[in-house]
Design a protein that fits this description.
heterodimer; A: 6-stranded mixed β-sheet; 5-stranded antiparallel β-sheet; B: mainly beta; 4-stranded antiparallel β-sheet
Chain lengths: 113, 115
């Protein structure tokens, strides 16, 4: 099983749509969780951290479910500028026993007019 | 957010030569540095993790003698690709964390082409 697994996508949605991405992680001892955004041929940019209580930043809402080892990202009222690849990332003691920042494969979002 | 500066952004080198990539944290102390490689249309693959003043810990399948990582100070880490070959052509990105928080911030990445 992969350490961090993510919806493969791609997601093609019209402007204004609501879209949700999901991600699961294998190690229950994982400590920190994030969503990053990566534009084509650029470095990832931190979108938001994810907490058990859930957190919201404008149109973006992230949730963490520790029992199911699952994190999600909801984007409301999609804009053309939201088109990018969204990567979930987890810090935890994966193979090797030390804390590592591991990424999911990424989900491509394309928002069209 | 914190700023991580990575250089060079793009490099073309001949097969058999070595290339050094630098990653600097500009406004925080990078106690941990992660180095990744990303092939086209693929995800970020962790190569190694280094803590300041310690030897890097490499992921399975990553040759430590080929990808030399130095993290001698709290603001600078380097990755040297030794005896580069065309199959080493990829996008290399560093990411840094400090003691204060869990978030990791990325450098701009280095696009390496070995000809």
């Amino acid at each position: 099983r992969k350490e961090v697994e993510q919806d493969p996508g791609p997601f093609n949605v019209p402007e204004g749509a609501t879209v949700a991405f999901n991600c699961t992680y294998s190690n229950s001892a994982s400590q920190s969780f994030f969503w990053y955004r990566q534009d084509c041929r650029k470095e990832p940019k931190l979108l938001m951290s994810v907490y058990s209580s859930g957190n919201e930043d404008g149109r973006f809402t992230a949730q963490l479910n520790r029992a199911s080892q699952y994190i999600s990202l909801l984007i409301r009222d999609s804009k053309l500028s939201d088109s990018a690849t969204y990567l979930c990332a987890v810090i935890g003691p994966f193979s090797g026993g030390y804390n590592k920042l591991i990424f999911g494969a990424g989900t491509r979002l394309a928002v069209h007019p | 957010g914190a700023v991580v500066s990575q250089h060079p952004s793009r490099v073309i080198c001949k097969s058999g030569t070595s290339v050094k990539i630098e990653c600097r944290s500009l406004d925080f102390q990078a106690t941990t540095m992660f180095w990744y490689r990303q092939f086209p249309k693929q995800s970020l693959m962790l190569m190694a993790t280094s803590n300041e003043g310690s030897k890097a810990t490499y992921e399975q399948g990553v040759e430590k003698d080929k990808f030399l990582i130095n993290h001698a100070s709290l603001t600078l880490s380097t990755l040297t690709v030794t005896s580069a070959h065309p199959e080493d052509s990829s996008f290399y990105i560093c990411s840094a964390r400090d003691r204060g928080g869990p978030e990791a911030f990325f450098g701009q990445g280095t696009r390496l082409t070995v000809v």
